[in-house]
Design brief:
By secondary structure, the protein is an alpha/beta fold. The protein has one domain: Ribokinase (UDP-N-acetylmuramoyl-L-alanine:D-glutamate ligase). It contains ten helices and 14 strands. α2 links the parallel β5 and β6. The longest helix is centred in the last third of the chain and has 16 residues.
């Protein structure tokens, strides 16, 4: 059964992930041996699928082209139980894509995103569908949305007293969230994204990361979670802060791990799970994703998360 009778509204990017996994040291300016894989992706789509696999009722508002990629994305979302009826199919449009090169240790070397189609989600489109905000229990956005669209999103959230969770998406896009920190219930940046949100140097230690999380809370965020890769995650709320260690796993592909953490902590927030336990669930979800070839672990479930925590 869904964890809430009202759906979580997720707005943002969906696309195809193309991942090149290098077999050895990456030689720039040259061809590298390795494996190339395809999977469904996009920050908002990934978060929506993770939530659906945790039995949360989800509505996804994204934009895709009327091409085969777009059809596959929407069909797969429906199969996962996600309501995609408000999503936009752009005639003649090109569905978004994300190209990543991953080193032999599972770390991201470089990536290119092609998410221009998200610009089809306009303020006018959202205002015409403002009833979606009144029907939701929580709102999740990614920073692929244009600044004017984000402004409309947060305005509609205020009018409907809707808690907002946001994914900064990338260092280049994180700045778009800066005007809205006081309206955020939850944000889960990495250290580079957190540096943009707090206008301070990138955290290099756990203590510096804790300071950055506390600074986000001081700026109005209810729950701030900073991901530190193999060092785990730190978190802060107005009442507490702390560190949750990472789980040791063999990394197959890093894509989508942060989205899984965000989704699991949103699930916890919907179910009044304490913050420390919420972050532990998020790290468990991220670890399952790191072991998967897909951007969302297809076997994700609440039972698997708690089994991993108990291991």
């Amino acid at each position: 059964m869904p964890s809430t009778s009202r759906s979580v509204l997720v707005i943002g990017a969906a696309g195809f992930d193309i991942k090149g996994l290098a077999a050895g040291e990456i030689l720039y300016g040259s061809s590298n041996a390795g494996r190339v894989r395809h999977s469904l992706g996009g920050v908002a789509r990934n978060i929506a699928e993770n939530l659906a696999r945790l039995d949360v009722a989800v509505t996804l508002l994204t934009a895709v082209g009327d091409d085969e990629a777009g059809k596959q994305i929407l069909h797969h979302a429906e199969e996962c139980g996600i309501d995609v009826t408000p999503s936009i199919v752009v005639k003649g449009g090109r569905t978004g894509a994300y190209l990543a090169v991953v080193d032999a240790n599972g770390g991201l070397s470089v990536a290119i995103d092609d998410m221009g189609i998200v610009g089809s989600i306009t303020p006018q489109y959202l205002n015409h569908r403002r009833r979606l905000f009144g029907e939701a229990s929580m709102l999740v956005v990614d920073a692929n949305l244009a600044p004017a669209t984000l402004d409309t999103v947060f305005s509609l959230a205020v009018k409907n007293k809707l808690p907002v969770c946001a994914d900064p998406t990338s260092t280049a896009l994180a700045e778009r969230l800066c005007p809205y920190l006081r309206q955020l219930h939850l944000v889960a940046p990495n250290t580079s994204e957190a540096a943009v949100l707090t206008d301070r140097p990138v955290a290099r230690t756990q203590d510096e990361a804790l300071d950055a999380a506390r600074e986000l809370v001081a700026r109005g965020v209810d729950i701030a979670i900073l991901t530190l890769a193999d060092l785990g995650s730190v978190y802060a709320t107005p009442e507490e802060s702390g560190l949750v260690p990472a789980m040791r796993v063999d990394i197959v592909d890093p894509s989508g791990a942060g989205d899984a953490l965000t989704a699991a902590t949103i699930f916890a927030a919907l179910n009044d799970i304490p913050t420390h336990e919420a972050v532990r669930l998020g790290i468990a979800a991220a670890s399952l994703t790191l072991e998967s070839r897909e951007s969302v672990a297809p076997d994700l479930s609440l039972e698997k998360l708690y089994a991993r925590l108990a291991a």
